[in-house]
């Protein structure tokens, strides 16, 4: 009987997907071209990059040959238990894991669509403790524009009372600043990022953003959510709350 193809762990799959998306963006090749080079179906490539299916060893090896790079990181040495009780670096707020455990979880993330003024863009964000980094980290998935999926560190300084989701990729930053409701768990605030235009054109852009604990949405919709979607009204209500209460202010120029 043939030997079953080994599936990689969820963390390995996320790391490999991130590396592949970076290579696609850096080389400016299409996913279709990469799938053909790796002798994979486009459907398979889309599913593994979108987090809907784990990478297998065979699929990973084919993609490594097609890209000419190693996608698998060597095993890391076990992380020694932190003698300071799992405390984040000063630059992230010097918080302990126990102090921020209430932030950990999976969220439905909503913000205005940058391409359609009447639509809402929704995706999944997971916030968890990373023992190697000794801090909270976040990772996005279920994004319609999977090539722009973000991941990074979470800062929780005591002084401001806000939470910062920070992406720093080779010096290019994206910052999300939110406040969290202590009882229900939603987080509301502002995202500052870059809008991808034609060619290499990038334009700074800011917008309201809301993180909803996934248990609040019975059947979440991800991607570009239009007015006829069952979740549209709920998503729109939370986005308006961001500016109506207000958790974020947008001043006229």
Automatic annotation (TrEMBL):
Protein name: XRE family transcriptional regulator
Organism encoding this protein: Bradyrhizobium valentinum
Coiled-coil positions: none
GO terms assigned for molecular function: DNA binding
Domain annotation HTH cro/C1-type: ranges: 20-74
PROSITE patterns: HTH_CROC1 (PS50943)
Domain of life of the source: Bacteria
